Amino acid sequence: MQMNDTPAPSVAALALRCLDDIVAITGVWLSRAMLIDPYGRPDPPVPAEELRDTALDGLEMLLRHVATGVVAPGMAGFSERVGERRAGQGVPLASLLAAARLDARVIWEAMRARAVPAALPDLIGGAHHVWEAVEQHVTGLMTGYQRAVMEMGRQREDQHRAWFARLLDNQGRNPDVVRDAGRVLGFQPAGPFLTAVAHPEAGAALRAAANGLTAAGLRCHRHDTPTGDVLVVQLPDRPSDHEAGVLDALAGVRCGVAPAVTGLAGVPAAVRLAAATARAPGGGTGPRRLEDSWLAVFAGTGPEPAAELVRRVLGPLAGTEGERLLETVRTHLSGSGAIADTAAALYCHRNTVQHRFARFRELTGRDVRVPRDAAVVALALQAAAGPPP
């Protein structure tokens, strides 16, 4: 690229004189670059030999640029290649640019040290040639760096997508897949997770919610699917303290939310449960928890939510007491619904029936005297018994 004007002959001659001492000038640059993190670390991301060779080539390129006003043949893509390389090595962009801008100072000092007094006016008047050459170099570095970052981001997204799809396909059954998927996705495989699946029309809203949760410090993975995007959130060690916050972040997102699971292996099942909840008829414009949507989910889906319902509603009942409570509830729900009729059928006092209902509510959180709870318990009992003949 041609610069704004042609350098004065004395300025060009100074640049060419510096080329004769390029090794020494490169040594000065290296001594200063070592003060910029991470170049001076004991185990730097850029090997010392590579850094020296790149600095030597870059300073030569810049000096020839100052001397001639054009980039040396074959060097036009040098800056962008270095930017791409440093991005791949994990050098922060700020550090890369700080080191690159050392070029201007080192070259200017080298030219000034070699200038005779008569050449100083021309050198000062032509200082812009040095700055313009270095700024063009910096622009190329930034272009290459940003291009590499974008490409690495795409590759990372592709890798995340592939491993999450593998986790789903495997249904969490292979411990090696669970472990490796957790590593790639940045999850702690043994930790708690909350899973949401968006309605097909709510993908953009789910993406915005995921960005907000990530900004709040939670680790998330969003997975695009034609039937509804999936969001998996790694919860802190005490998930009950943070579930409400996740649901708040999902406000306005039409989605289904599965109960929290412990362990990444449970996420595939949670995805299916959240998807069933999202597909259930009815619903509003915000998140819908499976816990609050059993009737709707059962109206529009199949056996997996049934198994989850049995586990969550009837799971707390065990032993002789549990069997007695279940017998009382079955009798009540299969009869007229009157306490007196239930007591008569069981040959016990109505107060005994009331006590058993209270105990059932204490264990399960469901009161069979409330129509909505009675419907959920009836569904759980039917699911536990299997499909009717």
Describe the structure.
- The protein is of the alpha+beta class.
- It has three domains: 144 residues, Orthogonal Bundle (Globin-like); 124 residues, Alpha-Beta Plaits, CATH 3.30.70.3400; 74 residues, Arc Repressor Mutant, subunit A (Orthogonal Bundle), CATH 1.10.10.2840.
- The chain has 17 helices and six strands.
- Helix 1 packs across helix 5 and helix 11 packs across helix 12.
- The mean pLDDT is 88.
- InterPro entries: CdaR-like_regulators, CdaR_GGDEF, PucR_C-HTH_dom, PucR_C-HTH_sf, RsbRD_N_dom.
- Belongs to the CdaR family.
- Pfam families: GGDEF_2, HTH_30, RsbRD_N.
Runs in which pLDDT lies below 50 for 5 or more consecutive residues are none
The amount of beta strand, in percent, is 5-15%
Order of helices and strands: HHHHHHHHEHEEHEEHEHHHHHH
Helix percentage range: 55-70%
As for the number of domains, it is 3
Count of alpha and pi helical runs: 17
Give the biggest sheet: 6 strands, mixed
Q: What is the CA-based Rg, rounded?
A: 35 Å
Q: Give the beta-strand count.
A: 6
Structural class: alpha+beta
What's the architecture of the largest domain in CATH terms? Orthogonal Bundle
At CATH level 3, the topology of the largest domain is Globin-like
The coarse silhouette is rod-shaped
Distance between the termini: 83 Å
Specify the CATH class of the largest domain: Mainly Alpha
Mean pLDDT: 88
Family: Belongs to the CdaR family.
Pfam family, one: HTH_30
Protein name: PucR family transcriptional regulator
InterPro entries: CdaR-like_regulators, CdaR_GGDEF, PucR_C-HTH_dom, PucR_C-HTH_sf, RsbRD_N_dom
